[in-house]
Amino acid sequence: MVISKVEMERKSWTTRVEAKKKTIESVQGLVDGVIIPTKRIVEVLERLIKPGDRVVLEGNNQKQASFLSKSLVQVDPKKVHDLHMIISSISRPEHLDLFEYGIARKIDFSYAGPQSLRIAQMIEDGKIELGDLHTYIELYGRLFVDLIPQVALVAADKADRYGNLYTGPNTEETPTLVEATAFRDGIVIVQVNEIVDELPRVDIPSSWVDFVVVADEPYELEPLFTRDPRHITDIQILQAMMIIRGIYEKHGVKSLNHGIGFNTAAVELLLPTYGESLGLKGKICTNWVLNPHPTLIPAIESGWVESVYCFGGELGMEKYIEARRDIFFTGKDGSLRSNRTLAQLAGQYAVDLFIGSTLQMDALGNSSTVTRGRVAGYGGAPNMGHNPGGRRHATDAWYNLKTSDDPLARGKKLVVQVAETFQEANKPVFVESLDAIHVKDQAKLRVAPVMIYGEDVTHIVTEEGIAYLYKSDSMAERREMIAAIAGVTPIGMEHNPKSTEKLREKGLIAMPEDLGIRRSDAKRSLLAAKNIDELVQWSGGLYNPPARFRSW
Amino acid sequence: MVISKVEMERKSWTTRVEAKKKTIESVQGLVDGVIIPTKRIVEVLERLIKPGDRVVLEGNNQKQASFLSKSLVQVDPKKVHDLHMIISSISRPEHLDLFEYGIARKIDFSYAGPQSLRIAQMIEDGKIELGDLHTYIELYGRLFVDLIPQVALVAADKADRYGNLYTGPNTEETPTLVEATAFRDGIVIVQVNEIVDELPRVDIPSSWVDFVVVADEPYELEPLFTRDPRHITDIQILQAMMIIRGIYEKHGVKSLNHGIGFNTAAVELLLPTYGESLGLKGKICTNWVLNPHPTLIPAIESGWVESVYCFGGELGMEKYIEARRDIFFTGKDGSLRSNRTLAQLAGQYAVDLFIGSTLQMDALGNSSTVTRGRVAGYGGAPNMGHNPGGRRHATDAWYNLKTSDDPLARGKKLVVQVAETFQEANKPVFVESLDAIHVKDQAKLRVAPVMIYGEDVTHIVTEEGIAYLYKSDSMAERREMIAAIAGVTPIGMEHNPKSTEKLREKGLIAMPEDLGIRRSDAKRSLLAAKNIDELVQWSGGLYNPPARFRSW
């Protein structure tokens, strides 16, 4: 055995904590204990952040550390440059301004909805170096492995003067970003709406926090999961009826995740009406992993729902949640506790079903919301929308999807894709080749940005019917099944009426009639609430919709 | 729209918090604030836990809330009965005594190594109702969906008198179990080794905790990841050389997880010797997700390792970790921060490679550590040991496993299984049919308890060679590849020397010679440390092995 004693004595193994100590000392004249004065934030950031640092900036599809991002963009690029930014959701213009101004150089992210066009152009122009696209949960995972941050810029509702944090209903990803940074001798800077003497509860202890700063205005919060029932169409209601009958009832789906689509909002609003008429209360849709959707209120009030675990909060739902705390996860203070990491975990491993909408699907069921010229990313859909190979427990619905008698055969997670055969502007949803392949080349990605892979999709629902893809391993047969419900799109035109009839007989596809659904029954009158006002009524006045939805 | 006002006014939506309030009031004469006097624990548990409650009891492969489990077994079954226990690892006799005594009725768990024989018998005798077997992470997920606990019994190092907790190096699953319970108006009871005025750091804030109790002795902690290099054999060294050359170097594996096997301990101990001779430092094995293995010390000291993120701690490694905090995740106090949930997440989504050993493998590569008469469960291997369908980012190693030119083709996680063709007592590892199938029937499981499915395995390493399973989609060819390296086991005897030669030529299998490895070089002299004492020397005396390993 050879140990180089010289080597061992020479090397310091505490370089990060020593650098942190020095960095923190450099702002001692500017800060008051853990508190950064609001107007000194730019100056302080210029000292706390070093060129080349990996900086994780909080911002997902809802909550944004907006004061900190607005401040970071004001630092002097001569002092702070070449940052490697890690941002769940590139939502705000300044997220990309950082790159225009030369403050940041490289980015790793999950989702770029509002900025997807601009980022694609900037990648093409070489103004931004793309690390990679991720789902939320794999980006969080990398924070502990090969993307460990030097600095975290996050948002909370309140802090006390020691730096204990109350994140309130929108806890979301804050604890995970802070944990990765704090326990690796990184610097954690938190914007808060206010500093108070006593917090309603502590979501993150001061041991994990280096600095807090009172923001000039409250952090940005997007009411992303508010869907006005007025916009739900008869076609979406027809699809929702098929989903309830042909999937939830058929397989006994008890635990599930819904996304933000109007299709799934329609399902939520049909449970107390159509679902009730089928006698399904207590048999389906009891345990949910989803944000506090206002459209779920009628189902909750009607006694359909046992529990809801949330990724994040939803503007206007605060009082309703507090008054219905048997249903939600709340702190001792009664306000919602959300946690994006744990909700993604629960949504991947502990629920029977994921259902999502898509903008494009190919003949084999691969789908993507990425369209030409845009680098949109994923969010969390791919995690929940695949069959988790690490799952070992069986629920009835999962086990119901077992199709083989092999002694090692197992069940499958239900992964449902809902689509109308055409989007607006006569664009077919079913296409021969996904735009994602073009975006792969344009953005120089190694892999095409597919949202959900065909191999994982168990059911597709269009206005034509349901394809039970899980029943077939044959690629040719799956293609036929998809064509049979793809309407008059190029893929749908491939279908052969005779083979469609055979597929119906074999139960591989089902039309509404096969499920006992009359198309003429699919009317808006079936919705438990037809507009936001009726949701407020259902909530007994507890739901307080954001101004932009108060148009009744 | 119909709202039954009567229904709305009748129903209480705060039943759980009201019940909790009453329950807590019922112990007011027995407790002092949040502190339960040690000798009153049984009496207090009898009041805090109700018949039929779902109780999550901390206990994984390392850390056990042993005082609380010893106390729970003493409650009066007339007062507390029919509990539904949720335990990650059934490790202690009293975990099953609870069922013998009529205190508990149903169990959901992940792993039952030490108790796997007894639990199998109890299931067969109808003394215990089995919910299901899980991996850690899916069991945690269900705590937020359909296995929400009413009571959590967990362990921490220290508390202050407000109930803030210091879990120290062994944070592990405590925060996750507490979060699921505390934010659903459940009752959180924590055993601590001591109550102090000031904590080194806060790992869990008092807002999440209802009661603490000082245990009669420190919680049990198993040094599960300590492997004495004296027991590493020449065969394991040969396998380790093949792994380094034929997998890590070949694919450029930078981030990885190692389990507790001697095979992987050998890999760790060969990096500073054999790995160094190949010039691989900095090119492979830089970022790790694993417990603080003592056998990793020489690689760390030699500068191979950039970061280690841990599921849990390891007895005796405390001072070493604190002195090497550039490598580990530590709190401000310098002691390790582990987190089982986040480490599982990182191990699933953020690392290139998982490698594990197995006791049995069938001809198609399905493997299990479950053997006849035992219901052992899984732990975390299936989560890390599969190709995560939700992964979207590409590392070099992952992308290197892409085998198709399809525009939607992607890479793959490396899932490596290491096995010697025979276990002790001449039992073949490669078998026609897994014992797991027998256990499925015996324990009335819905699905056979397979640890790693053949479809997920990318490489198998035996003392004969490596099978590069990822290179072939053909079941017949995969079977041939496995047979070619299965020695003289029944499966191995199937192999045809001619086809083996063809497989070698095509690069589908590799023998040591094909990798430039001479079998005669595979000697213990290659190990950077040959015993525990040498590990202590490498650590500069910072590693302090548990007594049972101090036999030099």
Question: What does the model show?
Answer:
Two copies of one chain form a homodimer. By secondary structure, chain A is α/β, with parallel strands linked by helices. Chain A has two domains: 21-221, 3-Layer(aba) Sandwich (Glutaconate Coenzyme A-transferase), CATH 3.40.1080; 229-532, Glutaconate Coenzyme A-transferase. Chain A has 20 helices and 24 strands. In chain A, strands 1, 2, 4, 5, 6, 7, 8, 9 and 10 form a nine-stranded mixed β-sheet that branches. In chain A, strand 5, helix 6 and strand 6 form a beta-alpha-beta unit. The radius of gyration of chain A is 25 Å and the shape is globular. At the A-B interface, helix 2, strand 6, helix 7, helix 8 and helix 13 of A face helix 2, strand 6, helix 7, helix 8 and helix 13 of B.
Distance between the termini of chain A: 79 Å
Give the amount of beta strand of chain A, in percent.
Answer: 15-25%
Q: Report the top-level CATH class of the largest domain in chain A.
A: Alpha Beta
**Largest interface: which pair?**
A-B, 113 and 113 residues
GO molecular function (chains A, B): acyltransferase activity
InterPro entries (chains A, B): MadA, NagB/RpiA_transferase-like
Organism (chains A, B): Ureibacillus thermosphaericus
Pfam families (chains A, B): Mal_decarbox_Al
